[in-house]
Amino acid sequence: MSDPIVILTEEPLGADDRLNIERLVDGADSTLLLLVPANTERHLLVDFLENLSMLDIAKAFRDLTASTPDPGTERAQAAETLAVSLEALSGLGSGVTGEVVEVRPVDALVAKVRDSGATQAVVITRPHAVADTFHTDWANKAQDQLGVPVLHLYAGSGFIGDS
Q1: 81: enclosing H helix or E strand
Q2: 125 and 12 in contact (C-beta within 8 Å)?
């Protein structure tokens, strides 16, 4: 049996993401361990600047005036993301398991990699202009702590983040 691969995602995975993970597994019998954070720890100012940089001005101001998300709603959305993602990855490797994590996303990824003995980790996010530009994204943070390769993929695409 091959070493497990730990995957952290903030987005529901789809067909393009499955193809990317399938290429990574490359026929091996690796177990895939999927983590979905209940709280992505986004920051109001960073999100505002990010939306402006992506020229999504309406969303920037909508998010700026939105109320704080309810933790129960966030957890339900994370559970839905997990269910959709498990379905998208079903049949790959020697099986796919997953969980919604309540701790900080990078901390959860680091702990799962260490506990499972994984030698590979994958972070799947939507583009985050500020974090990606300044290398403060989840993949870079995890790689700094782990010392194992952390592949950064953008959800729904074949694009690789700069880790």
Answers
A1: helix 71-89
A2: no
Separation between Cα atoms, residue 23 and residue 46, nearest integer Å: 33
Distance CA 56, CA 51 (A): 5
Q: What is the pLDDT of residue 163?
A: 45
Residues near 136 by Cβ (< 8 Å), separated by ≥ 6? 130
Determine the Cα–Cα distance for residues 9 and 5; give it in Å rounded to an integer. 13
Say how far apart CA 82 and CA 8 lie, in whole Å. Answer: 10
Structure tokens at 44: 């109001």
- In sequence order, the 6+-apart residues with CB closer than 8 A to the CB of 152 are 122, 123, 125, 137, 138, 139, 140, 160, 161, 162, 163
* Cα–Cα distance, 159 to 128 (Å, whole number): 13
Question: Which tokens sit at 87?
Answer: 């379905």
Instruction: Please give the model's pTM, rounded to 2 decimal places.
Output: 0.81
The predicted-structure confidence for 50-65, as pLDDT tens digits, reads as follows 665 666 667 766 766 6
